[in-house]
Amino acid sequence: MSRHFKAFVTAGALTALCVLSTTITAAQPPAPSAAELAQERAQLMQWQAQRLASLTSESGWLTLTGLYWLKPGANTFGSAKSNALRLDNPALASEAGSFVVSGDRVRFIAHKGAGVMHALAPVSEIELVADTQGEPTLLTSGSVTFFLIERAGKLGVRVRDTENPARRQFKGLQYFSADDSWVFNARFEPYQPGKSVRIVNILGMVEEMQAPGALVFWKDGKEYRLDAVLEEPGDTELFVMFADATSGKETYGAGRFMYVPMPVNGVVRLNFNKAYNPPCAFNDFATCPLPPLQNRLMSLRVNVGEKNYADGHHP
Q1: Cys-Cys link to 78, which of 84, 95, 149, 315 (CB 3.0-4.6 A)?
Q2: pLDDT tens digits along 59-72
């Protein structure tokens, strides 16, 4: 999961969602059956194991160790203090090279003998593909990997280190006790046309996203709504960012994330037991989107899902 959202949704994707929801009615769908709840419980342990494996993998969020925003022209990079972009890491040469920005294009020019590699071959000079354009160009130096990212029109370099202390000293994830009462058949209300949602990330950058619809559910006799988005065209899941009355207390202050299945006959299975922390809960080098105002359910305590990480950040 290299990125948490994209800033566009194709008309085809929106049309597909609307077709899936043609049988929608104003009535709330029936609650999940006992068999469906049993299936959700069985899947939850597998989901938690996959979550842990992804987080602690060699490309997981715990490996992030640097984030640098580029300026036009040459941006020198290496472990020495003389560099414009300095990463104090023994796996990186004192002068690794330079990121040269020209408009929306970036080339990396390696310093001779720096040991920077791409696809197992030494690099002298290479044009970089950003993460928003597909798979980014990965450059490596020992345990360090660095690549180009783009956020809200700004170009930056993200750095991973498989030997990062945050990964090596990881203490594990903690969850509330699972609770079937937080599993809903939510009503999907499509926006026609798609609704534009202003999303601010943790660095204050702003992007406009398209929300294809809202998820409507009832808890303790009260109706709640969450706008859902697609991270990119062709996705098979909806992405939800939300905050609640546990945010900043038992759970991460900036909110939590969920992926939910696409609507079928106007219904979406919404399981808050699978709510999880954004990457920013674990280090300072992620660019997490924040829940939009309409997804901040501050009168509701969602006391299921992932708790705050003990050694994490508490905004």
Answers
A1: 95
A2: 999 999 999 999 99
